[in-house]
Amino acid sequence: MPGSLSWLAMQLFPKQAPFTTPRTSGSHSMPPAAVLPQLDSTTALFLDFDGTLVDISEQPELVHVPIDLGSILQQLAASLNGALAIVSGRALMDLDHFMSPLVLPLAAEHGSVQRFADGHIAQLARPELRDVERVALALAGQHAGLRVEIKSAAVALHYRHAPALEVLCIEEMAEVVKRTPGVELMKGKCVVEIKAAGVSKGTAIQDFMTQPPFAGRLPVFAGDDTTDESAFAAVQAMGGAGIKVGHGDSLARFRCSNPAQLRRWLQTGFERTRP
Ligand SMILES: [Mg+2]
Hints:
CATH class of the largest domain: Alpha Beta
Shape: globular
Number of domains: 2
Distance between the termini: 12 Å
Strand content: 15-25%
Strand order of the largest sheet: 5-4-3-2-1-10-11-12
Bound molecules: magnesium ion
CATH architecture of the largest domain: 3-Layer(aba) Sandwich
Order of helices and strands: HEHEHEEEHEEHEEHEHEEH
CATH superfamily of the largest domain: HAD superfamily/HAD-like
Number of strands: 12
CATH topology of the largest domain: Rossmann fold
Helix content: 25-40%
Low-confidence stretches: 5-17, 20-33
Largest sheet: 8 strands, mixed
Oligomer: single chain
Number of helices: 8
Radius of gyration: 19 Å
């Protein structure tokens, strides 16, 4: 239909499927940064938080949230009839703290915890992580610069302040994963995380897309990290669009440079002439 995401994609790339952008060479060639999908009343919008909506902070608890972010998201959520959710590796309380007073649907801890539009919270997984915690805390006790984050269904070992310890962190956590049932290792930006196996940002988006007001819309997801690749794959498999924020190989068919550029798109990307 004119003005819809798929309609726009067909105008831009008439011989390709919705949101398939031209590739110049190789499997990870990037489209021009200026080509971002048009949001309209048929969109379901999913957004990562750190590195996507806000710049990554040296200390995660000290992340700077731009003063207008809440109002941008509130207006957009209203335009999308509520079909806007945050999809992040952070804990739910963390996300609520940074978004306050705005309360949005969200998938926290890479999808292990989900809060839907009606306020219902689902804790999908709670693996036994005592051994993982013990190993991570012991490592942090031995090496300055490591930080352990214990969530309801995951343990994250951050090495942003000790990047030379990356291999050690990954090897130690991989060892404990081998003897811990139902968990898997996931690597992000300066963090190695142990979380429930089979749960990801991609599965979280699939869950949201079965629920109102998301169901029946075209999903768009923006994220910046390798942990967002499952979400790019999920939305694009549904005919939607993935937007990679920043550098790095990605399945996403769209790209923008940084969180500031993404926020500008969030402010201006909604087609307000649509009914
Ligand atoms: Mg991120």
